[in-house]
Write a structure and sequence with these properties.
binds NADP nicotinamide-adenine-dinucleotide phosphate, 64% helix, two-stranded antiparallel ribbon, mainly alpha
């Protein structure tokens, strides 16, 4: 099979699994963090889990960039910087910022995360640097790149700020949960997830690739149900939870 054919079939498979995951996650929450529970096998410290899970996305992308035919294309290099900004933080900085005193991520979640991140790194980097067109400087003036870039960095900022608020709720050694306040939390329960969704929506536009679209669809499938369930969890756990706060879309849902 030619690689391009394989690539297109992989995108189709990615989308189908994402659609199934979206519906499944309304009934079964991924067993990590506040939704960790028995019956899902051995657990790891979440710091180690995040590093193991996210580092493959960074490595796969950089290796395929280095081996790619278009690695000197200027817009491709800028998109590499976008990816690095997210994944260097997620795999090597975020795990050391969280207060993680208990084993709260299951090995099964980490294993699924590794598989996803290797496949996702391939779908995105292989298109940008080999299978797709080389992105020259003219791509910088394309409205898809401009709007995508604004969304990517806007989502990145919201995600970073919202995670910072959550991480700041605990003192070192603490495990409990508190009500987050300020920033995006004035309007919704999970601005960190919404920031991440906007970020990868921007990425899909800026890359204009099926791999980018598949990543965006997966991010929605993964995080929208979790945001909704997290919202219900906050409401059931905290009687004084702000009643006007929505789950995902301010003033709507
Ligand atoms: N692209 C994707 O598909 C994808 C998938 C998953 C995650 N992510 C991103 O990865 C990041 C982390 O995700 P996550 O699901 O772990 O987020 P999360 O459940 O909001 O937790 C983030 C950190 O804050 C702590 N925390 C959460 N709520 C808290 C509260 N009310 N009080 C005190 N501490 C609290 C958590 O501790 P505990 O671990 O003890 O709960 C964890 O250390 C987010 O930026 C998310 O967008 C992306």
């Amino acid at each position: 099979m030619r690689e391009l054919t394989f690539y297109h079939w992989l995108v189709v498979a990615w989308m189908v699994v994402a659609a199934a995951t979206f519906f499944a996650l309304f009934f079964i929450s991924a067993p990590y963090g506040r939704f960790t529970r028995g019956g899902w096998g051995p657990r790891l410290n979440s710091r180690i889990g995040w590093i193991l899970m996210e580092l493959p996305a960074l490595l796969a992308f950089v290796i395929l960039f280095a081996l790619g035919d278009h690695h000197a294309a200027p817009a491709g290099i800028v998109l590499l910087v976008f990816w690095l900004a997210h994944y260097v933080h997620r795999s090597l900085i975020f795990p050391f910022r969280i207060h993680s005193a208990r084993p709260s991520i299951t090995v099964s979640v980490v294993a699924m995360g590794i598989c996803f991140n290797v496949g996702n790194g391939y779908l995105n980097a292989r298109w940008l640097y080999t299978l797709g067109p080389a992105l020259s400087t003219s791509w910088f003036l394309d409205p898809r790149f401009i709007v995508g870039t604004i969304l990517f960095w806007g989502g990145y900022a919201l995600n970073q700020h919202s995670d910072k608020v959550l991480i700041g709720l605990r003192k070192p050694g603490e495990n409990g949960y508190k009500i987050p306040m300020g920033g995006g939390y004035r309007f919704i329960s999970c601005p960190n997830y919404v920031g991440e969704i906007v970020e990868w929506g921007g990425w899909a536009l800026a890359c204009w690739s099926l791999g980018g679209l598949a990543f965006f669809v997966w991010t929605v499938a993964n995080l929208a149900p979790r945001a909704y369930k997290t919202h219900l969890w906050y409401r059931s756990r905290f009687p004084d939870y702000p009643p006007e706060r929505k789950a995902i879309i301010p003033f709507v849902i």
